[in-house]
């Protein structure tokens, strides 16, 4: 009877957790359209559709006990830090864009911080300068300054989230103290049986993610500038597209950095367990 109660409680916790995560994903997606003024009905409908799709995907992903698309699903705080980082970036960028027409004390403060960071990081060949150069050539000073402010606050948010992630990993000694780490569940795209040593492959993937995390802030503006010839330049009047573009530009590299660090920690954990197993085996075979 006690075991059945624990099993039912586990199922309830899983359902509630999946539902809460789905609601948070909806809040993330609809934040710009809910806060920004003069959002067209067609745009709001598209955002609502995307939010429902994201909520359904998140709900069924965390409801299932089997691996899906989300990595490190059962290894907090990896996804929690990434979600909070993206949510904070989207929220701050929305405040900045809304403050352009409806200024408040908070919007002016956030804009001032973004302007300061953007000014410091706006030097030749820097990621912020490249994002500013990704704007159309006929962009006015207002839109150039707005892009610089948004890029500055997004870059600051990504650096803070990366620092918080490193501190949490160090304090919690992740993933060794988070229970048994299931590679099949937490790394669904990584096949341990694909061949080669698992530790070597994890370290190689960690290095690849780190390199990509370093290169993407420079590559994404170049891709945007090249794609503008085919699909059009960044819509300066559409704050929603600017918010998501700048947020992804800052979030994706920091997310790859986190993934690389996490995979490197997992490789070290496996190495440590191997050494313990070898040491225990040597003790068993030692003569009495």
UniProtKB/TrEMBL annotation:
<keyword id="KW-1133">Transmembrane helix</keyword>
<feature type="transmembrane region" description="Helical">
    <location>
        <begin position="46"/>
        <end position="69"/>
    </location>
</feature>
<protein>
    <submittedName>
        <fullName>Uncharacterized protein</fullName>
    </submittedName>
</protein>
<feature type="transmembrane region" description="Helical">
    <location>
        <begin position="146"/>
        <end position="169"/>
    </location>
</feature>
<feature type="transmembrane region" description="Helical">
    <location>
        <begin position="15"/>
        <end position="34"/>
    </location>
</feature>
<keyword id="KW-0472">Membrane</keyword>
<feature type="transmembrane region" description="Helical">
    <location>
        <begin position="211"/>
        <end position="236"/>
    </location>
</feature>
<feature type="transmembrane region" description="Helical">
    <location>
        <begin position="109"/>
        <end position="126"/>
    </location>
</feature>
<keyword id="KW-0812">Transmembrane</keyword>
<feature type="transmembrane region" description="Helical">
    <location>
        <begin position="242"/>
        <end position="262"/>
    </location>
</feature>
<feature type="transmembrane region" description="Helical">
    <location>
        <begin position="81"/>
        <end position="97"/>
    </location>
</feature>
